[in-house]
Write a structure and sequence with these properties.
- This protein is of the alpha/beta class.
- Helix content is 23%, strand content 26%.
- It has 18 helices and 40 strands.
- A hairpin with a 2-residue loop joins β8 and β9.
- The longest helix is centred in the first third of the chain and has 26 residues, at 2-27.
- It is globular.
- The two termini are 14 Å apart.
């Protein structure tokens, strides 16, 4: 019963969130921790000349009550950030007692503990239809967005990459107010008309982990990890012909919006990404004038009013900034999403129609298909078979040795052999290094039930092939039942036109959104598997310290890769429709997404090879060209989002976290959370079986032809009838708004959610909203 699982997983998620909070707190300086203090900007007494002096006074006052000797220190050293734009307040070092006392002070909205976030770690423009010919000539949609600025919060940037050449770009947009900060090996000259700004944020990180070792890490916007360079290039990288990774995926690499500008905000360091730094970056990015924010990182899920990123992105949305966030890589488990606030676009990952085939040829003459990006000096002969070994007694249950963890392989058992390793716990490429260190000559990397048949290619340090769960079990059984088992490995380069595609990645985090079941998440999926983009010059393609290879481009996977695809496409829409709100852009992306693959079958889930649902793919797979002309949009204002929060049982003090402006309060305009004008519809029938009918309301705006007529089409459901009123919408002018209601009446309560869609059609446009109906189990 999915509902029962949802309840249990909800309890587990809350427990894990609390445990993470406890762990993070204990890892910080014992006596003090970083707290984010949100202040009521409008409550500042007239005796203070500016807000920062008032904030400092509040901190100083609380500290002096507990430790008089530290009063001066409080003013000068306790505060590490001053937030002024998307968020009002400070980040400060406080003891738990001080934090509790501060939260009781007048004018203080919230005191939130520091939280550590993690990164959610080409052909995609052609696959997405942005460059239909696949040649040198770009679609006109690419070249009209020169004034759109995308802020990328990540690990920094490698400015020497050809992806950041500014040839052909006009001068820096007039609305840019940012800066190019300098530091170790990063100078003013590294910014140009492509990288128009670069900043770094590290005070929270240093407060939690100690001073950055500048001999080992760049205390500058420069990227030594590669992640930030890759995401920035995916968003808005300039076209680079002949791009490839060791010969794989050769072609022209370009970002989704190569005419857009990049503003770099380095918030992630070797020890992670801390919320006070991220919050400061969002706050600064809004002040700098970015149009789009791309955030490929995440952590646990917390109540909206305790989630500093949720609060900061609400402020960014108020200022007209579109925010795209990665959904996370915790799939295929349900309720594994992060970044679930309705005002951000939550992006899952999918495959493309490109693959990197490889084969495992067994001594039994069985051949198994897999993938690999291996291109080393040592290859295994196709004319010879090599000993094959699996260090486990059971093909279905991995153990430490079969996972090829550090120090678990006995060289006497694996030297000179191809070793079968199970996927899990340690990085995939690291398993190959463990095999190599133990004397192995090759590796077969087998998926487990958590990964299913999803195949992710890696740039291994020894000959290695990744295979699906079923094939992996067959290979393991062969190795366990044949004392003289043998195999060899072969590599076939790059293959295009893969069917089916796209497929939802197994690692892509899944819904439902347990904070608000009525808000369907993820919002959309985009390419996030085996993505080629620019790379740092400081690290090999495997990201292992032992990898001395250096490449200009790398192929990696994750929702971190799918998020910048959406950010770049949002930049295209912003350029085409500069007056559109963030919600309007999001609506266009969601209502034009498709839910069938290139074989004309429903999108599949890589973990099960069965059809995916809206909890996996959200509204569907992004369709950029359709999104440019969506026909109708569902717009949502900042006040509308606040009205949604008013339905979430928040206290007046908790709501003040979002109602920073003095004129914003609850008008109770929504009957319930399902009435938020969201482009997706999720209806929750409560445990009370006497409730048999629910109605939600929506408003659409006509952004197509002034005179147009739409009729509605709704999927059939087993458990409920659906009535849409009116079932026709007739518009007489552009931007005209019309409302409709959807009434769901239970016919037979279903044990599992039902999925379908509601589509408005005018003969040219198909404006689709996913529909989910859930019946909570009776108490």
């Amino acid at each position: 019963m999915l509902q029962a699982k949802i309840v249990w997983l909800l309890l587990i998620q809350i427990s894990v969130g609390l445990q993470l909070n406890i762990v993070l707190c204990t890892n910080l300086i014992p006596s003090r921790k970083i707290y984010i203090v949100q202040m009521d900007k409008w409550a500042m007494p007239k005796s203070f000349s500016n807000h920062f002096k008032w904030y400092s006074s509040k901190i100083s006052s609380v500290v002096s009550k507990l430790r008089n000797s530290e009063k001066e220190e409080a003013k000068q050293e306790r505060i590490i950030y001053n937030y002024q734009h998307a968020f009002h307040g400070v980040a400060a070092q406080l003891s738990e007692e001080e934090a509790m006392m501060l939260e009781e002070e007048e004018g203080v909205h919230a005191v939130i503990p520091e939280y550590k976030y993690e990164l959610h770690t080409t052909r995609s423009p052609i696959f997405l239809g942005l460059d239909p010919g696949g040649g040198k000539h770009m679609s006109p949609h690419y070249v009209e967005n020169h004034d759109v600025i995308v802020g990328v919060l990540d690990t920094g940037i490698w400015p020497e990459s050809e992806s950041f050449i500014d040839s052909g770009l006009s001068s820096v947009p007039a609305h840019w107010r940012g800066a190019c900060e300098t530091g170790r090996t990063f100078n003013k000259r590294h910014c140009n008309r492509k990288i128009i700004g670069a900043r770094m944020f590290y005070h929270g990180y240093e407060a939690a982990t100690g001073k950055i070792n500048e001999e080992k890490e760049y205390k500058s916007p420069r990227d030594q990890d590669g992640h930030g360079t890759h995401t920035a290039a995916t968003v808005a990288g300039s076209p680079v012909q002949g791009a490839n990774l060791l010969g794989y995926a050769a072609g022209t690499a370009r970002g989704m919006a190569p005419g857009a500008r990049i503003a770099v905000y380095k918030v992630c360091w070797t020890g992670g990404c801390f919320s006070s730094d991220i919050l400061s970056a969002i706050d600064q990015a809004v002040a700098d004038g970015v149009d789009v924010l791309s955030i490929s990182l995440g952590g646990g899920v917390f109540p909206y009013y305790r989630d500093s990123i949720s609060i900061a992105t609400f402020g960014a949305m108020e200022m007209g900034v579109f925010v795209s966030c990665s959904a996370g890589n915790a799939g295929p488990d349900p309720i594994s999403l992060t970044n679930v606030s309705p005002w951000v676009t939550t992006v899952g990952a999918s495959t493309m129609d490109r693959d990197f085939p490889a084969q495992v040829k067994l001594g039994s003459r069985m051949t198994v298909a897999g993938v690999s990006l291996y291109r080393g000096r040592k290859f295994l002969s196709m004319k010879k078979q090599y000993p094959l070994v699996y260090i486990s007694s059971n093909a279905s249950n991995p153990d430490p040795s079969s996972l090829c963890l550090e120090g678990t392989l006995d060289p006497s058992k694996v030297a000179g052999k191809i070793v079968i390793c199970d996927r899990g716990i340690s990085p995939r490429v690291q398993k190959g290094q463990v095999v190599k260190n133990a004397g192995g000559i090759g590796m077969v990397l087998s998926n487990t039930h958590l990964n299913g048949e999803e195949l992710v290619a890696d740039c291994h340090l020894l000959p290695a092939v990744a295979v699906g769960e079923k094939e992996g079990k067959a290979i393991k059984r062969y190795a366990l039942t044949n004392p003289n088992a043998t195999a060899t490995l072969s590599f076939a380069g790059t293959k295009l036109g893969i069917h089916p595609s796209p497929v939802v990645a197994a690692f892509s985090s899944r819904g439902p959104n347990f904070l608000s079941l009525e808000i369907l998440k993820p919002d959309i999926v985009a390419p996030g598997v085996n993505i080629l983009a620019a790379w740092t010059g400081d690290l090999g393609p495997s990201s292992l310290p032992t990898d001395d290879r250096r490449v200009k481009f790398n192929i990696i996977s994750g929702t971190s890769m799918s998020c910048p695809h959406v950010s770049g496409i949002a930049a295209l829409l912003k350029a085409r429709h500069p007056d559109w709100s963030p919600a309007a852009i999001k609506s266009a992306l969601m209502t034009t997404a498709y839910v069938h693959d290139n074989s004309q079958n429903p999108l599949k889930d890589a973990s099960s090879n069965s059809p995916s649902t809206s909890y996996d793919h959200g509204s569907g797979h992004i369709n950029p060209l359709k999104a440019l002309d969506p026909g109708l949009i569902y717009d949502i204002s900042a006040q509308d989002y606040l009205e949604f929060l008013c339905t979430q049982k928040l206290t007046p003090m908790q709501l003040k976290v979002f109602s920073k402006h003095s004129n914003r309060s609850c008008h109770k305009s929504l009957m319930g959370p399902g009435d938020l004008n969201y482009p997706a519809i999720s209806v929750i029938f409560p445990e009370n079986t006497s409730v048999t009918s629910l109605t939600v309301h929506r408003i659409v705006a006509n952004v197509g032809a002034p005179i147009s007529s739409y009729h509605v089409q709704v999927s059939p459901f087993k458990g409920a009838s659906v009535r849409v009123e009116p079932d026709h919408l007739r518009f007489t002018e552009k931007n005209q708004k019309m409302s409709y209601s959807v009434t769901f009446t239970t016919l037979a309560r279903q044990p599992n959610p039902e999925f379908g869609g509601l589509v408005w059609k005018d003969g040219h446009h198909k404006v689709r909203s996913p529909v989910v109906i859930t019946w909570l189990p009776p108490v």
